[in-house]
Design goal:
Elements (H helix, E strand, L loop, with lengths): L1 E7 L4 E7 L2 E2 L3 E3 L1 H9 L3 E8 L3 H13 L4 E4 L5 E2 L2 E2 L10 H14 L3 E6 L2 E7 L5 E8 L1 H11 L19 H24 L3 E5 L7 H5 L4 E2 L3 H12 L5 E3 L1
Parallel strand pairs: 1-5, 5-6, 9-12, 12-13
Antiparallel strand pairs: 1-2, 2-3, 2-4, 6-14, 7-8, 9-10, 10-11
């Protein structure tokens, strides 16, 4: 029996295959890449988390249906699950990716933790010793910063790279790249200072840009944290799930 765990993000889709009690390495790509991988396997079940909006969700649902995947679990957000209590006033407003990361992060360390996800946005969530989600922060990731500067300021339009350099720039490209890095590094430093003692868990493709900065803190890096949380949510069998046939 083959199962797919699928995390549909705002920039790309990430998925991994589970077969006969064994995980295969997660891969990332677009909808066409996911389709090609589904065509290589006879998939009996899919677990899906989607933050990309209803349009993309419908496309993924249609793709799974067209490939004969009848058992589909769509992760939702609930008030509490797997020992974690949602801290939002309106708990359903918490992004499902952040919620799943909280579930997996707390399950991983079973103590106060700060979970940082480096995706399209950099998200921060804090869970206390008792599993209570205390809230978090959301700031733009590097790509969003570059897009905003280039799209709203004509003279700054260009192709920018992800750097880990906070020196003064000696041309416009360096000024933008180094400035965005310094801004985000300052944000992360402030978060860690405010967080204080506890485990710091990082995930997301953008982590490597800040790995050196965060290494002194002894962070735990978990590449597939959201997918791990997705599996936990499925096993927990919470009432907030949707099941499509």
């Amino acid at each position: 029996m083959i199962e797919f765990e699928i995390d549909v993000g705002n920039t790309y889709i990430k998925w991994r295959r589970w077969e006969s009690g064994q995980y295969f390495s997660a891969v990332s790509g677009d909808l066409c890449a996911l389709e090609a991988d589904l065509d290589k396997n006879v998939v009996s079940k899919a677990l899906v988390a989607c933050v990309a909006g209803e349009s993309i969700k419908s496309e993924v649902a249609g793709l799974l249906q067209s490939r004969g995947v009848k058992d589909v679990f769509w992760a939702g957000v609930v008030k509490s699950a797997v020992g974690v209590i949602n801290g939002y006033t309106d708990y359903q407003k918490l992004g499902v990716d952040r919620w799943l990361a909280c579930l997996a992060g707390y399950q991983l360390v079973s103590e106060r933790c700060c979970i940082i996800d480096f995706g399209s946005a950099i998200t921060v969530d804090v869970v206390d010793d008792g599993g209570c989600h205390k809230g978090g922060y959301i700031v733009p990731g590097s790509r969003l910063c570059f897009t905003s500067l280039g799209g709203n300021t004509g003279s700054l339009a260009g192709v920018y790279e992800y750097v880990s350099d906070d020196r003064l720039g000696l041309d416009t490209k360096e000024c933008v790249e180094n400035g965005v890095y310094l801004m985000q590094a300052g944000f992360l430093a402030a978060v860690l200072e405010r967080f204080g003692k506890g485990k710091v868990i990082c995930t997301g493709g953008g982590y490597k840009q800040f790995a050196a900065l965060l290494s002194e803190r002894g962070v735990v890096y978990c590449r597939d944290l959201v997918l791990d949380g997705l599996r936990l949510a499925y096993i927990d069998g919470w009432t907030g799930m949707e099941r499509g046939e």
